[in-house]
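Hi all, long-time lurker, first post. I run a small reading group and we've been trying to get comfortable going from sequence to structure in the token notation. Rather than ask abstract questions, I figured I'd post a concrete chain and ask someone more experienced to write out its structure so we can walk through it together at our next meeting. Sequence below, copied exactly:
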Amino acid sequence: MSFEIRDAEVDPKDPEQETYLYTVFYRDNNQTLQNLCRGDANYAPKAIALQESWDNTGAYLSAGEETSNLQLHQWSFS
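-- Answer (accepted) --
Happy to help. Here is the structure in token form:
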């Protein structure tokens, strides 16, 4: 699956202005662009980039850790 970052903005709730929020889209089976994130009344549908890695089971991978599961997730979606 490929992703398309459509927008990036500084998080208005971050007083240090160090966190960027991304609007991320993907194409569904009908080739229609869909927002990857889900928002609600309190949170916009945005993603943040993380410097850490997790495998498909959600297990944290420390720096340099080898894994047979190559699908690493480095984004957090809301």
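A couple of things your group might point at:
The chain has one domain: 3-77.
Residues 1 and 23 are 16 Å apart (CA to CA).
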